Amino acid sequence: MKQYMWGILGVVFLLSGCGLNKKMFAGDSTGQWERATLIQDQFGSQLKIVRQNNEVWLIEAKTYCFWTKRYVNAEIWFLWGPVECKVKNDAGEVCEFWTKGKEEP
């Protein structure tokens, strides 16, 4: 019975995110908008973003983002997160995206 309880506590611990390796995202801070360049737009659903540190990220829209096609090869505002992120234009329009992964430039 005691082993069963420890097993359940271990699963709860892992599922709550307490076991995540914080070094995975070292150097990245969420909650800060940064300037980034939008280099590819797949009909407002998938974007490629070049961050200030020259990392290229593929992000996928939670809902269709109609204005991004006008900003290809231009700077936008980017709020990075390991799971989800946001993009914003200078007019203040914001779209939410899922963070799909880092790509080689």
TrEMBL record:
Domain of life (superkingdom): Bacteria
Protein name: Lipoprotein
